Amino acid sequence: MIYLDNAATTIQKPECVTEAVVQAMQTLGNCGRGAGKGALSAARIIYEARAAAARLFHLDSPKRVCFTGNSTEALNIALFGLIGPKDHVITTELEHNSVLRPLYHLMNAGTQVSFLKADPSGNVDVRQMEGMIRENTKAIVCTHASNLTGNLVDIHGAGEIARRHGLLFIVDASQTAGSFSVDMERDHISVLCFTGHKGLMGPQGTGGLCIAKGVEIRPLKMGGTGVRTYLHEQPDQYPERLEAGTLNGHGIAGLKRAMEYIQETGLEKIHEKEYDLMMRFYQGVKDVDGVTVYGDFSGDRAPIVALNLRGWDSGEAADVLWEDFQIAVRAGAHCAPKMHEALGTKETGAVRFSFGWFNTREEADLAVAAIRQMADGEEASGDGPGLADRMGLVTAYIQSHYREELTLEDVSGYFGVSREYFSRFFKKQMGVNFIRYVHLLRLEHIHEDIINSDDSIMAIARHHGFTNYKLFTKMFREIYGCTPRELRKTGEEPV
Fold first, then answer.
1. pLDDT tens per residue across span 65-109
2. 416 vs 17, 268, 314, CA distance in Å?
3. Could you count the other beta carbons within 10 Å of the beta carbon of residue 252?
4. What is the Cα–Cα distance from 176 to 186, expressed in whole angstroms?
5. In the CATH scheme, what architecture does the domain 268-382 have?
6. 3-state secondary structure of 105
């Protein structure tokens, strides 16, 4: 499998992450719920995970790192805990539904929301945010990188605007945490929301918020914390304020090790490799006839390439990439409706290729080759006489050459289409795959020679194009209900 869906989740994890999760499952108790070794070990691991996140994102206090199940939960906590009915929020058209849907819900309660429009390349100019500020503006909320195009947002510029006007600045770092430098102090970020299972290369079910000093968030959930049991309200102090109930200690142990692995390896090294793979793929597909690539590739960006092939539904293209090439990608709308509207892909969706630390150049090259073959196949069936119109010629060609060592490459090349396209289309038209069809043709003519010729059955099979004698005898019995030797012995024409 070639896994190119890292923007959804990373499958390949550092081995040390898996080991940390397994060890945690065998040893950790419940953090803050006991004085035994297991509970104390859980408390230590979780604190070290907070410290690792604080170092990675440049937050001054580990206690202001609050863990969640993912960035969606983190963003819900931040938005519902900071924004009220009378407030105004500025956001962008690049946002994921993790931002959009909470904002739509808040709008129903009276919150005002302004959307910074994206240009045809999917970029936004954050300088325009300054002109969108109103008397009741409370916050700027934006992603660091589009999960559809990979385009970056200038979070430093947006943060400067928020700082000058005394606004909260909430950043969704789902696509950049783990491969980009995110500095809360430098970029004036009030709340940073992250997920553990993408660029951070940690387990699913992990994520969190990093909360700057002076920012107080109303709890979204209330319940047990292991401390201040007799309070009627959720405790005020972080992290307990936002961490009701038992934490995912096993997952957080893996996330801790993943963040340590990233810092040991180096953010710049990780980003450089992922960027190289993404650009290698982009350079290979951008000029292919029939391929449309979305986004701006003129500067730094997340390792994502979204495209469409002429004549292909994005979902169908993703299915073929998997079924014919074993390449895993994601197609559709990617939970980014406004971005698709801005790009004009609302109806078609797009096919998204996203690269990660464990991908290779060979995998990028194979993905390029797959797109080129699919584009060639579409062109061959769409320009001039389509393959469907030539199926009579195709079958006649195969029938006249059935004794030869026919291959998919030879026949598809003869008719000017890709191997994968020909294979898929042939099976759809004929009801059997190409190889079986050729074998059936050979079997249709072979029985006469078996009855009338003095040659050995093996020699006859080779003469008719069968190089695999075991396969020949198996198919012969399947078709004629007897073995070739039994047919020769009876000397009777099969029914």
1. 999 999 999 999 999 999 999 999 999 999 999 999 999 999 999
2. 48, 44, 23
3. 30
4. 16
5. Alpha-Beta Complex (3.90)
6. helix
